[in-house]
Amino acid sequence: MGNGNISFTFYLTVFKEQNQFRYFSFMISLLVYLSIIFFNATVLLAVFKEKSLHKPMYFLICCLCINALYGTAGFFPRLLIDFLSDTHKISRQACFTQISVIYTYAVSEYTILTLMAFDRHVAICHPLRYHSIMTPKVTSVCIACAFLYVIFYLSLAIYFLVSIPLCGNEIERLYCSNWSVVRLSCVNTMINNILGYCVTITTVFAPASFIIFTYVRILIICQKMSSEYRGKALQTCAPHIVTFVNYSVASFCDVALSRYDLGKYQVVALVFSVEFLVIPPILNPLMYGLSLPDIRKKILCFFHFSK
């Protein structure tokens, strides 16, 4: 352990510089969080209440919405408390819990997007075999395996994180993150770094490569279709492509900026560091709710706007 100590409390230092904007930031954050809850809950309600939407594609959309609600629940309530607090401290247990929730959300987003890409690939490239391949049982097993895969890697990362001795307790972020805690270590963190790269490769780059491969295959198949069928196929894929690109950019910004001290560009770094927790949870339900006719019609019925 060396001279390291086990810190029982961490301090989120970035809030010290935001005191003059604390109430404004609180109101904006609260509005964003309530919007996320409303948009995702609306899509979930539309799918669960409409039996015609009980299909693999829509169940995976529900998983995306549930994951958004789960991930933002690990970020926004704590953020709102910190905006109104004068101490900005967080216990060791609460910090590691927040890391677990946020990183489970982050990795699960990619696994769900991978399953959605596979679903679209089967539907478009093998339409006659779709119902025999994407059965409810197969879909359930795939979702369960995806989440077990996430939990395994996260448990491994948290185990190594908890075991390292720390020589500081100040975190320069809006929330607890794995790398911000590792940087406080008194000892060499090579094992944590290697594990971090392995987790990134297996949970980000591997799924992203598979998603890109499936869409290359889909585009090749679409070239052989009639213009009408091609339009319908691409319409069902468009929300997923936008979601994948948006989340990939947000994740890249968080990973890239978290390891550097940007000095006077600290505000920019803070904005990009929370983008993956704000933009996808808002954009995804809007994309699927507005782009897919079946969901859009059901949502309009809720608000009595349909004919």
Automatic annotation (TrEMBL):
Extract the InterPro entries matched here: GPCR1_Superfamily_Member, GPCR_Rhodpsn, GPCR_Rhodpsn_7TM, Olfact_rcpt
Which GO molecular function entries does the Swiss-Prot or TrEMBL record give? G protein-coupled receptor activity; odorant binding; olfactory receptor activity
The cellular component terms of Gene Ontology attached to this UniProt record, alphabetical and capped at eight, are: plasma membrane
**Membrane association type:** Multi-pass membrane protein
Q: Does the keyword Transmembrane apply?
A: yes
Where in the numbering of this chain does the G-protein coupled receptors family 1 profile domain appear? Answer: 39-288
Cross-referenced Gene3D superfamilies: Rhodopsin 7-helix transmembrane proteins
Question: What residues form the membrane-spanning segments?
Answer: 23-48, 57-76, 96-118, 138-162, 194-216, 269-290
Please give the family membership noted in the entry. Answer: Belongs to the G-protein coupled receptor 1 family.
Any idea what this protein is called?
Olfactory receptor
Which organism does this sequence originate in?
Chanos chanos
Gene name, please? LOC115814925
